Amino acid sequence: MPIRAYNPTTPAQRGMTTQDFDGITSKKPVRSLTRIKKGAVGRNNQGRITTRHRGGGARQYYRLVNFKLEIGTEAVVEHIEYDPNRSARIARVKDQNGKYHYVLAAKGMQPGKKFTVSEDASIEAGNRLPIKSIPAGTQIHAIELQPSRGAQLVRTAGASAQLVAKEEDYAQVRLPSGEIRLVSVECMATIGVIGNEQHQNIQIGKAGRKRHMGIRPTVRGVVMNAADHPHGGGDGGRHRMARPPVTPWGQKTLGYKTRRRKSTSRFILRTRHQGKRR
Fold first, then answer.
1. Exposed/middle/buried for 51, CB within 10 Å: 0-12, 13-18, 19+?
2. Strands of the 170-174 sheet, one edge to the other
3. How many CA atoms lie within 13 A of 272 on its CB side?
4. Angle at 165 between CA 160 and CA 171, to 5 degrees
5. pLDDT per residue over 179-189, tens digit each?
6. Using an 8 Å Cβ cutoff, are 117 and 69 in contact?
7. pLDDT over threshold 70, residue 87
């Protein structure tokens, strides 16, 4: 997917780029597979802000993507569609029973392409099969963490994981972050790389596009008053923090461990931080 640049008719559009939508074959989603998406605007059920800088944005409909197609499914791709709720493209597929589904569009997936979900499917992009049937070294995505639960890992545009090795009941998978994790060989995964790989190279260009995404402005703590933020205050001089960066409530933001599910640490053979030092 190439990146399309805007003509610099305004200062905001100078350097701004957007996606090329030539690969999209339909702009009308399946009505039965869409739901109204109500904006939570960062509030909980009591109306309190739990996620800051969220609100507004363009109206969207949520697409119901099927992350756990049943074994034995044979489907054909009918259209490649845009999904406003994720970076990847989605494919509208029709199975052997005439039922429609939305799945993540793998790289190279085009209308008319057929794929299968089975234990003995061929190793081709788009086919979905258990990890025990996939040879080591294969690029995979949409990986399950628990059998029959549905894909939870590697679902963003341009992402893929690599099946490193298989030992008895578990397989070693190298994730895009560099982490090497143990995954049950009974879990399902899709062959290939997710499409729309140029998504990360898009330049937003102006603040208005962020507002369309539902992201509100962020104010730096160093320009606030001391009563409003731990970084605030000062006599208007240099904005050098005399303490480690923290949140407005004093919680550390750099070097602070945020991992909570320690029970799954035994499945991580190499952390993403160790993977970056390779």
1. exposed
2. 100-104, 90-95, 73-81, 114-117, 128-130, 188-191, 139-141, 161-167, 170-174, 180-184, 268-270
3. 5
4. 80
5. 999 999 999 99
6. yes
7. yes
H-helix or E-strand spanning residue 140:
strand 139-141
Q: Using the structure block, give the residue that is written with the tokens 């039922």.
A: 99
Structure tokens at 51: 């996620």
| CA distance linking residue 163 with residue 171, whole number of Å | 7
Residue with tokens 């996606």: 19
**Rg of the chain, C-alpha, whole Å:** 22
Q: Cβ atoms within 10 A of the Cβ of 73, count?
A: 19
Q: Checking phi first, is residue 178 left (phi over 0); if not, alpha (psi -120 to 50) or beta?
A: left
pLDDT for residue 278: 55
Q: Do 90 and 194 meet the contact criterion of CB atoms below 8 Å apart?
A: no
Q: Is the dihedral of CA 112, 113, 117, 121 positive or negative?
A: positive
Residue type (1 letter), 89: R
What the chain holds in terms of domains, given with CATH numbers, is: 3-200 (2.40.50.140), 219-278 (4.10.950.10)
Q: Which amino acid, residue 19?
A: Q
C-alpha to C-alpha distance for 221 and 212, rounded to whole angstroms: 24
| Residue with the two structure tokens 């730096």 | 220
The pLDDT value recorded for residue 171 is 97
CB 232 within 8 A of CB 246: no
pLDDT tens-place string over residues 229-245: 999 888 877 766 677 89
